[in-house]
Design goal:
alpha+beta; two-stranded parallel ribbon; seven-stranded mixed sheet; N-acetyltransferase domain-containing protein; acyltransferase activity, transferring groups other than amino-acyl groups; Aminopeptidase; globular
């Protein structure tokens, strides 16, 4: 398996993968809208095979946030249903974290399952002081420099997230 940046040629397959992974179009449409709005900072795909035999296994996206620190939102994270629970999602999250560390970001926020995201260092306590419509036990932060430069303030995801309801 290889992890690489998403290309324009991957867009249709990424949409189909997100739709299949979540069993609905909401997340796939979110990815499309984030792409169209120019709010994607990083989009990675996990693939196996080469050339015409390449198969898309997973996808992760990091998007812009308005925040009192240099922060990104992680999500959606999707893995092809028949390849889930094989470490593909974890490899994508690790690759996304590594990228953000190399590019000077201070935090990543995620709305997701705490039992899954805690293994990467995400913590609901770190996100608790920030004002967000997603605040609660499933809203977590990862400090990329060891600690956050601030633990309070308003967070706003990219506008596409507002359509999620």
């Amino acid at each position: 398996m290889d992890i690489r940046p998403e290309t324009a040629a991957d867009r249709t397959a990424v949409h189909a993968l997100n739709r299949a992974a979540f069993g609905q179009p909401v997340e796939a449409d979110l990815v499309d809208r984030l792409q169209a709005d120019g709010d994607v900072v990083l989009s990675l795909v996990a693939v196996e095979g080469v050339g015409a035999d390449e198969a898309l296994l997973g996808h992760v996206l990091l998007s812009r946030m308005a925040a009192p620190l240099r922060a990104l939102a992680l999500g959606p994270l999707a893995v092809r249903p028949d390849r889930q629970r094989q470490g593909i999602g974890a490899a994508l999250v690790h690759a996304a974290i590594d990228h953000t560390l190399r590019h000077g970001w201070q935090a990543i926020f995620v709305l997701g399952e705490p039992n899954y995201y805690r293994r990467f260092g995400f913590d609901a306590g770190l996100a608790a002081g920030f004002a967000s419509p997603y605040a609660g036990p499933y809203f977590m932060a990862l400090a990329l420099d060891g600690d956050l430069p601030t633990r309070t303030g308003d967070l706003r995801h990219a506008p596409a997230f507002a359509d999620l309801g």
